[in-house]
Design goal:
The protein is of the alpha+beta class. The protein contains 2 helices and 5 strands, in the order E-H-E-E-H-E-E. The protein has a 5-stranded antiparallel β-sheet with strand order 4-1-3-2-5, with helices on one face. It starts with a strand and ends with a strand.
């Protein structure tokens, strides 16, 4: 079974992903209750690796779309994603 998540952004370092998670929780804490962040790595520009922050797990794609719609209404970038990656250690 595939777990779904939402990709809420990326950054060049683990610290930048921690900062993004802190900001997301601070601004939209109730949306993320019960969810946890993982680091997903995808191919970036010119063969570089891009670190992405994926939050989940969510039960289905519709739940991911609902969260993304809520975040987008508040100016956040978000896209549904597969919840798969390395757990983000918060400190």
């Amino acid at each position: 079974m595939t777990d779904f998540g939402v990709d809420i952004g990326g950054g060049p370092t683990l610290e930048s992903l921690r900062d993004l998670w802190t900001a997301a929780k601070g601004t939209h804490g109730s949306i993320f209750d019960g969810l946890r962040p993982v680091i997903s790595i995808r191919d970036g520009k010119m063969g570089t690796a891009e670190l992405r922050l994926v939050v989940g797990p969510l039960s289905n794609a519709a739940a991911a779309a609902t969260i993304c719609a809520s975040l987008a209404a508040n100016g956040w970038t978000c896209r549904p994603a597969v919840f798969d990656g390395q757990r983000l250690a918060l400190r």
